[in-house]
Amino acid sequence: MVHFVGAGSGAPDLITVRGKELLESADLILYAGSLVNPALLGFAKAGARIFNSAYMTLEQVTEVMCAHPDKEIVRLHTGDPSLYGAVKEQMDVLDRAQIPYDVTPGVSSFLAAAAALKEEYTLPAVSQTVILTRMAGRTPVPQTQQLAALASHGASMVIFLSAALTKQVQEALLQGAYTEDTPAAIVYKVGWPEEKLIRCSVGTLHETAGKEKTGRMALILVGDFLKPGPAVRSRLYDPAFTTGYRKAAGKGDTQGAGI
Known about the structure:
Helix 2 packs parallel to helix 3 and helix 6 (166-174) packs antiparallel against helix 7 (205-212).
């Protein structure tokens, strides 16, 4: 059995309980050594075979999986396997070989980044949409999903795999609904000991990245959700708002007061 496991954003204690238990019982672990915190391998049991897929091709990775159908195998991916994990191509091979597998989700770096910054992507009257994307580079992006086109929405945006292309990112963002003053953040290796949280603006994004030398393992966050100051109050906990669990408070009714 092959278990695709999301390692989380970096900190060993941000892996899920299920993911940790699968690591502890695995006979064989294939981990993305260029991105996954090696501290997670401390959960491996004695005698478990460990392979670093950073030095392997898809064919070599899947050959190891298919060669041990009687073993419990963990394929440890950074963050969540469903985001830029190159996981579907591995599943296709396992499907053809009729080898069973399952997927355990992980805490994606975009979620850990918001947590580290103490921000919320979906604020009332600011943004109710989050766009996860990347700049076109060696890996192409469909024409309709070019960064400049997505920037036209002005939504909360998280840009993966683009920290080495900040000049192009900045230019593309300014072609959309964002301005020079739109707040931005560069989050480097969130959840790792060397984590950096750098706030800037769209207009200073490229300059800031150069000064801070954040390297390739950084996320770029953009949008007005990053603006300082209090948020517009949501209706969910408003005393005047009826929900499936409580009725709106009427005049002279203290129901919901203090919420």
